[in-house]
Amino acid sequence: MRWRHSIAVAIALLALALAGCTETTRGSVPSPRNQKIADYAVTAYADDAIETLADLVQFATYHPPDLIYTENPEFQAMRSYLENKATELGFDFEDHGPLVVIGLGESIDRLGIVAHGDVQPADPTKWATDPFTLDTTSEPGRLVGRGSEDDKGPLACALYAMKAIQDRRVPLARRIELIVAWTEEWNWDPIRELLATWEPPKINVAFDANYPVVVAEKGWGQIKITFPKVQADGDPAASEAVLESFTGGSFLSQVPEDATAEISSPNADLESALRTAAKEHPAVDFTFSLRGDRLLVTARGLAAHSSVPENGRNALTHLAALLGRLDWPPTPAAQVVNFTNDLVGTGDYAEKFGGLAHSDSFMGRLTLTLATVKVSDSGDDDVVAGLSFRRPLGRTREEIETTIQTAIGQWKESSGTSGLSFETRVFDPYSATNAPQVPILLDVFRHYTGVLDAQPVAMGGGTNASLLPNGVSFGPSMPGEVYTGHTEHEFMTRDQFELNLKMYTAALAQLAGAS
Question: Could you check whether the bond before residue 439 is cis, i.e. omega within 30 degrees of 0?
Fold first, then answer.
């Protein structure tokens, strides 16, 4: 554990950062020396890094609802693997509980590079092979597997970028600390609690987002709405069709790819009407099947990270739009469908949610995703809907919470829905536009991509960089490319993997290496 030593250290750090920025303006980043080190990293270690990625993918480090990460053997095994790998590569290793630190160098000044070892769940039925086995053959040129892009691929590249710098005996003005978190995809509170006692580096770069350099992140938010079992005034007529269930989605940070509705007592006219409407609704694929006396309607959309819902097609909202063409007797499923059509719709930007929509000139528009609809775990017939939103600057947390409460309250009253309850969690947007490493990272990106006008960007997703001083993100996803993390087809091309290794090495050598 390394503590703050004095104000002089901070002043020296700022002076070094400003010196790096001066070099950037002269077009000297990356330096010829650091370009050679970056080339060496790819030549010497690209295959080793991919082999390490294959090892990391095998650890199924997602978070089951009934097993905390500290008791999960997959996390324990990956932690041991990283400790052994650090020793093998000649690095030191520190275990701080919710994160581990793999270090190179002894300088008091420190550069943090941030990754995470946990991943989202994966549905094995949607993958060509086991999602927790790196697939390098079914799609030539691609490295397919859960974590290949988010975030085990970048983690493997970071390890071998450090190794290349060590091999070339670069004198380090800053100690490099690879910070690997275990709860990025689950709950950030353990890291927040750790930061009360552990002093992080003063400059931090996450390899967990987009290029060129992410300097601002929208604030994440969640709305959890419970629709209770409806106490009807009487049983529906035996011949009346009832929407018995409406479910879909896997987790809050994914645009749901699948949704299913179950209808009891369907008649031929109802089924015909839905089939006809489905043909006029091409955004998702609908299928119809009978199971006994019940009609199943399924929607197949396209999964995406919920921070970029425009990259996906939401099966839940489109199925709700189809079902909303008919009037249903009151059930929790019917209530969810009505709520979805009235307040969410099939758009991505909260256009219907009572004034919640807003935008910022740099961070962009607020996005809203109906991500999950599931039967409650409480054992009753309640249905729980989970919405994820990403908010830019422009509104206070209190304004956001009040807007949500007002919109849901007004809908509850106008729809006559009794017993509905909800809770919200709202976090603030993050900005680090003045972080001193940004000019250097931009010039590294410009040099290796030829995109000479590349500028800092904002994003909807959130990374642990936002918890750390001067935290920004540098890759691994290229501008204009669809981000595959959190989808059921996660991959990184080998070419991109090697480019990441090269740019990470050049960036670390430039930021940490003494001139």
Answer: no
HSE, CB side, 13 Å, CA atoms: give it for residue 515: 9
pLDDT digits (tens, 9 = 90+) for 493-515: 999 999 999 999 999 999 999 87
Instruction: Specify the pLDDT at position 502.
Output: 98
302 and 435 fall within a common domain: no
Q: Give me the domain span that covers residue 308.
A: 219-426
The answer to whether 91 and 134 are in contact (CB under 8 A) is no
Same domain? For 400 and 258 the reply is yes
State residue 376's pLDDT score: 83
| Residue type present at position 138 | S
Residues with pLDDT less than 50, the chain: 1-27
330 and 348 inside one domain? yes
List, for residues 287-309, the tens digit of each pLDDT value: 999 988 899 999 999 999 999 99
As to burial, measured by CB atoms within 10 angstroms (0-12 exposed, 13-18 middle, 19+ buried), residue 66 is: exposed
Domain at 479, CATH number: 3.40.630.10
Distances (CA, A) of 421 to 36, 225, 240, 286, 412: 60, 6, 28, 31, 10
Is the bond preceding 282 in cis, omega lying within 30 degrees of 0? no
Residue 188 is classified by DSSP as S
Contacts 24+ apart (CB under 8 A), 403-408: 403/353, 403/354, 403/355, 403/356, 404/223, 404/353, 404/354, 404/356, 406/354, 407/343, 407/353, 407/354, 407/355, 407/356, 408/223, 408/225, 408/343
Q: Considering the entire predicted model, what is its pTM?
A: 0.89
- In a 10 Å sphere around its CB, with 0-12 CB exposed, 13-18 middle and 19+ buried, how is residue 450 labelled? exposed
What are the structure tokens assigned to 124, written together?
């094995």
From CA 167, how far away is CA 95, in angstroms rounded? 25
Helix (H, G, I), strand (E, B) or coil at 449: helix
At residue 265, the 3 state secondary structure works out as coil
Q: How many residues does the chain have?
A: 515
Kindly write down the DSSP assignment for every residue of 67-99, as one continuous string. Answer: S-GGG-HHHHHHHHHHHHHHHHHT-EEEE-SSE
Beta carbons of 74 and 57 less than 8 angstroms apart: no
d(C-alpha 387, C-alpha 350), whole Å: 11
Last residue of a domain, one of 426, 444, 475: 426
Distances 497 to 120, 133, 144, 474 between C-alpha atoms, Å: 20, 17, 12, 13
Q: What CATH number does the domain containing 360 carry? A: 3.30.70.360
